[in-house]
Every structure is written in structure tokens, then in C-alpha cells.
Amino acid sequence: MFSRIKKALLVGNRKWLLALLPAVIPPIFVSSGCGTWNEGVTGPTAFQTTSPTVTVVVSCANPAAVDLGTAGNYVILAETGISNVPSSDVTGDLANSGTATQIGISCAEVTGTIYKIDGTGDACFIQATSAINTAITDKGNAYTTANGQADCVTELGAGTLSGLTLARGTYVWAGNVTIPTDLHLDAVGDPNARWVFQIGGTLTMASNMSVILDNGASAQNITWTVADYTQLGTGSHLEGTVIGFSYIALMTGSSVNCRLLSHTQVVLDKNVVTQP
């Protein structure tokens, strides 16, 4: 008899706990240009959670590819200078549309060619005035085009991207964005999945944090447009092309896989920058 009563109580407790859970754990809602979803809902437009990260899976259309034009020929492209604390390791071509004194990286640190307006400098420095000017124009066009893409998710995390895994889409913030933890970008098996991040303020990344590509995601398909400066913390790692309206600064030992395209200057400090 006691055993049967105990079993009944246990079953009753389980039912009581299950009934209580929705009230104890409130649903999480995220507003986007595609609508607002409850992460507890199932289906193709649901937000799904995978502890300890939150996976954002929404019915965003795949953003159009951002055409960099000839700006895509460079791993680093700047207008007012490229400074450097040696030694950095840059793979790809560099160019600056300013004067000769504004490129502070040596040939030994570059696997590629350094292009300058007047071509003065070390042996690896080559004059390419017309090509650089065209690339600068193409960079500006790419910035405008990327920012013109229709948004899908707006103001995610109020600009703090903490503990997230993001599926493809166009993500938009009016102000600053910070990456305080590792950020995962998940292609869900689609090698053509693309991400466009439109940032109306600054982009900052905490020290020793990384953007991590999952399930076929490619750095070539990631574009960050930043209306203010970009700063990557010491030892951090970023994936994708940054098109910055202000300067792009890499703190000591940080790295980037793709491109740094600045409307002003790029600041290096013992960094690794690689064009895939």
C-alpha cells in the first residue's frame, strides 16, 4: 500500500512540475524585420536553444552577395594609412591611397604586394595609382550596397552578442555592437549561406574571443559594415570582410581571416591577417 501511494505522489509531483515550468521559465522573444518569434515554438521560424549558446534560426532570406569589385583584390585597403607594430604576418596584397609615408609594414611581413600611390619604398612597393583609386571607389560602393540590403533581424541583444550562434541573414543595429564571448556562425550545411552585419556605431571584440564558423560557413560570405571604428581585442579572431567608415584597429596578437577595408586607416600590432 505504501509503495502505491509513494508512486502516485511521484507521478503527481512530475505533472505539477511540468505544469509549473512554463510559468517559471519565461519564453524568449527576439524582434526582427521578419517578425517576432518565441524560442519555445517549433518549426522553421523558431528560435532554438542549445546550451550554453542560443541558436538564432529564423526564416531570413539569404542575403545577396556583396560585390567588392576590385577592392576584393586586397587583404588590406586603406585611405589614410596602414600602421604596424612588427612583426605582423599578412597574406595578400595591401594598398593605401595616401602618400608613401603612410604604410608602415615591411616586405618581410607580407606574402603579397604592397601598392602605393607613388610607389616609393621597399622593393615590394609598387605604384598603382589608377588601380588603387578604382578600388577605393569600389569599396565605397560595396559599403553602400551592403547597407542597402533589407534587414531581417534588428537590434539583436541590444548590440551585445553574447553566447550566440547565428544562422544566415542580415542583422542590423543602429548603434554599437560588442562581441564579449565567442560568436558562432552556422551555415547549417549550406556553403552559400551569407551574413551581412550592418552596424551603425562601433564594433568591438573582447580579448581572446573568436568568431567561429560552423557547418560549412565561409569567411568569404561574411560582411561587416561599420559606421564608426572597429577594434579587435588582444588575441581575438574575426572572420569575414570588414568595411569600416572609420579606422580598423587590431590589438596585439589578434587575427582576421578575410579582408580589412577602411575609409580611413588600418592599425596593426603583431597581427595575422589572411585573405582566403
Helix content: 10-25%
Task: Provide the structure class.
Answer: alpha/beta
Radius of gyration over alpha carbons? 23 Å
Average pLDDT works out at 83
Give the overall form.
globular
Low-confidence stretches: 1-52
Oligomer: single chain
String of helices and strands: HEEEEEEEEEEEHEEEEEEEEEEEEEEEEE
| Domains, number | 1
For the sheet with most strands, the description reads:
10 strands, parallel
Strand order of the biggest β-sheet: 11-10-8-5-26-23-20-17-14-12
What distance lies between the first and last C-alpha atoms, to the nearest angstrom?
A: 71 Å
Number of strands: 28
Helix run count: 2
Structure, explained:
The chain is an alpha/beta fold. The protein has one domain. It has helices at residues 2-24, 129-147, and strands at residues 29-32, 35-38, 48-50, 53-56, 74-78, 81-85, 89-91, 93-96, 110-111, 114-116, 125-127, 153-154, 164-166, 169-173, 177-179, 183-186, 195-199, 203-205, 211-214, 222-226, 230-232, 237-239, 241-244, 248-250, 255-257, 260-262, 265-269, 272-274. The strands form five sheets. It has a ten-stranded parallel sheet, covered by helices on one side. The protein is globular, with a radius of gyration of 23 Å. The termini are far apart.
